[in-house]
Amino acid sequence: MDRNSLTFQFLKNPFTVGACCPSSPFLAQEITSFTGLENVSSIVELGPGTGALTGAILKKKAPDARFFAVELNVSVLETFRKNFPEVKVYNESAVNLPEIARKEGLARVDTIISGLPWALFPDALQNELLSAITSTLAGDGWFCTFSYIHCPLLPAGRLFRKKLDENFTRVETSSVVWKNLPPAFVYRCRKCS
Ligand SMILES: C[S@@+](CC[C@H](N)C(=O)[O-])C[C@H]1O[C@@H](n2cnc3c(N)ncnc32)[C@H](O)[C@@H]1O
Predict the structure, then answer these.
(1) Which of 19, 46, 158, 178 has its CA 20 to 30 A from that of 28?
(2) C-alpha dihedral sign at 39, 29, 83, 43
């Protein structure tokens, strides 16, 4: 098995990688299918892994929109860089998003798309990440992330949903994407209505 694949890295680091296989093109389509993504001027992807959602973002974004990614796992990053050599990716924790955005010369980012495995994260890390995200997101920006269908049944998944409601004024959920392993749905969140 390829040591830089998401599956190998999941077996090695299950609590940070959080998925045994990359998201399906159907989930990638769902997470990028909101009105306006094609018009925003800056997009960040958190936890891109090997890039299962990245192709859909590249397809949808405006040609001149700024786009970069932040990925913690150095091994999947190697595969990501091979798959998407044109995308700038930082090998850091998404907790550092405000500093990374500043380095990119961006005061705020219009859209943040996350593939982070929230339900596996402890309370303190969920707080740190949400604080980094909400302080970087533009006032009318969108934060989109996905959850596996079973996660709202787990305490950390329930906690995450509660935190979304506390941190955003609007939280929408998509219908379930059954053609994904496991099936998943998307949270779309906004700070203002
Ligand atoms: C569930 S996988 C999703 C990968 C890909 N986005 C997909 O949908 O197939 C989660 C990814 O988030 C990365 N990750 C976990 N914690 C992170 C953090 N604090 N900062 C940045 N990336 C992180 C993992 O290394 C992994 O690649």
Answers:
(1) 158
(2) positive
Ligand 1 atom 26, closest CA = 17
User: Which atom of ligand 1 is the closest one to the Cα of 19?
Assistant: 1
Q: In the chain, what are the domains? A: 6-190 (3.40.50.150)
Q: Tell me if 186 CB under 6 Å of ligand 1.
A: no
Q: Which residues pair with 67 in a beta bridge?
A: 43
* pLDDT at position 124 over 60: yes
- Statement: residue 155 has pLDDT above 60: yes
Please determine, for residue 71, whether its predicted confidence score (pLDDT) is greater than 80: yes
Mean pLDDT for 12-33 is 90
- pTM for this one? 0.96
